[in-house]
Amino acid sequence: MLDYGLTEEQRAIRDLARSIAEKEIRPVAAEYDRTGEFPWPIVKTLAAADLFGVIVDAEYGGIGDGSRTMNMVLVAEELSKACGGIALAFAGSALGAIPIMLAGSPEQKQRYLPDIAAGRRLGAFALTEPNAGSDAGGIRTTAIKDGDHYVLNGTKQWITGGGEAEIYVVIALTNPSKGPRGASAILVEKGTPGFSFGKKEDKMGIRASATRELIFEDCRVPATNLLGREGTGFITTMRTFDASRPGVAAQALGIAQGALDLAVDYSIGRRQFGSPVSSFQGLRFLLADMAMKVEAARALIYATARYIDSCPKERPTIYSAMSKCFASDVAMQVTTDAVQVFGGYGYMRDYPIEKYMRDAKITQIYEGTNQIQREEISKILIGEHVAGHARGAQD
Ligand SMILES: Cc1cc2nc3c(=O)[nH]c(=O)nc-3n(C[C@H](O)[C@H](O)[C@H](O)COP(=O)(O)OP(=O)(O)OC[C@H]3O[C@@H](n4cnc5c(N)ncnc54)[C@H](O)[C@@H]3O)c2cc1C
C-alpha cells in the first residue's frame, strides 16, 4: 500500500472508521438501501466512537485540530466502502458544520459545534431550490429583518439530512434587491415555528440518506442566527464547498474502492471455460485500469486535503473541484466496470454490486455538478494563465 504520510492519529481514525464500516455497516447496507430508512443506529455508533468529532476543533468538543479535512476524507472513504448512503449521515452533517466553523462567531460555534461533534445533533446545508440548482444565484428564499429577528419564507429542495438533522445553515436573501450579493447564511433549528419538511425523495441511490424539502413560512429566527455578515452568504457557500468537496470526492473514492474489492473477489471465484474469469486478460486489464484510477483519485484527494489543512493563503477551489470531479467520474466508471466483471449477476439486486453503481451517480451531481466543476477549474486555469501573461508583459 502506498504511504501517504498519514499521522498516527489519522491512521487510528481511518482504522476505527474501517472497523465500524465492516462490522456494523456492511451487514445492514442492503436493508437500508431497500427500506430507505435513516440509519439512526449507525449514527449512534459513529457518535459513540467520536467520529463526528474528527472535523471539529478541540475548543468546540472535537479532535480535528489541524487535520479536519484529512480526517473527514478518511472517514468518508472508509464508511463509503461499505455504503455510500449511510456514509452521508456523517458527511452531510460535516457539510452543515463547515460553514459554522468558517463563518460562525465564537458564541455560535460554542452553541452548535459541540453537539455536532458529539453526534447529538446533525447539521445540514440548504442552498438548492426548485428553480436554483447550478445557478445558485437564482435563489428566491428570503430572510427579511424584522426588529431583532429574521423572517424566512421560501422552499429549499433536496436537502441532505432534511428532517433528520437539527441544525440547518440556510442561504437566503436578506436584501433581495441586491440579488446574489444580498444573500446571507442563517442558522435555523428544527422545531422553529414556521419551519417544516416536505416529502422525502425516493432516490436511485444513497437511499439510506434522507433528502427532503425544507419549507419556511413566516419562520422567525433571532437576528443573532446570522452567520457572518449580511451579504456574505455566497462567499460562505463557496468557502464551504472548497472545504467540503474533498468529502464528496472521498465518498466517491470509497464507493469505487468498495466496488473494486468486490469485483476482484468475484473474478477469482467465478469460473468459466474451466478457469477463474480473473485469468482472462480482457478482465485482468479491466481490473488493472480500475485500480489505477482509484489510486490516482486517492492521491489527488489526500494531497488536496493536506493542502486545505495547511491553511494556504490561496483558496483551494481548483484542487477541491478537481478532486470532486475526478473521483466521482472514477467512481462512475469503476462501479460500471465492476458490474461488468460480475456479468449478469452484477445486474441482479441479490448481489451487492449494482448498488455501488447507483450510489456512485450522485457524486457527479451534488455540491456542484461535474460540468460546474469543470467550469470552475477552467475558469481558474485560464484566469491564471492570462494573469501570468499580463505580469510577463509588465516585467
Ligand atoms: C440526492 C441529492 C442530495 C442533495 N443534497 C443537497 C444539499 O444537502 N444541499 C443543497 O443545497 N443541495 C443539495 N442537492 C442539490 C444539488 O446540489 C443540485 O442538484 C446540483 O447542484 C445541480 O442542480 P440541479 O439539479 O438543479 O441541476 P441543473 O442546474 O438544472 O442542471 C441540469 C444540467 O445542466 C448542466 N448545467 C447547468 N448549468 C450549466 C453550465 N453553466 N454549464 C454547463 N452545464 C450546466 C448541469 O451540469 C446538469 O447536467 C442535492 C441533490 C440531490 C439529487
Q: Could you explain the architecture of this structure?
A:
- This protein is of the alpha+beta class and about 400 residues long.
- The protein is built from 11 helices and 10 strands.
- The strands form 3 sheets. It has a 4-stranded mixed β-sheet.
- A hairpin with a 2-residue loop joins β9 (about 270) and β10.
- It is globular and about 80 Å long.
- The mean pLDDT is about 95.
- It binds flavin-adenine dinucleotide (FAD).
- Flavin-adenine dinucleotide (FAD) binds near residues 365 and 366.
SSE map:
Blueprint: H1 8-25, H2 29-35, H3 40-48, H4 68-82, H5 87-103, H6 106-118, E1 123-126, E2 142-146, E3 149-160, E4 167-173, E5 183-189, E6 195-200, E7 211-222, E8 226-227, H7 233-269, E9 271-272, E10 275-276, H8 281-309, H9 317-342, H10 353-361, H11 370-394
Helix pairs in contact: 1-4, 4-5, 4-7, 4-8, 5-6, 5-7, 7-8, 7-9, 7-10, 8-9, 9-10, 9-11
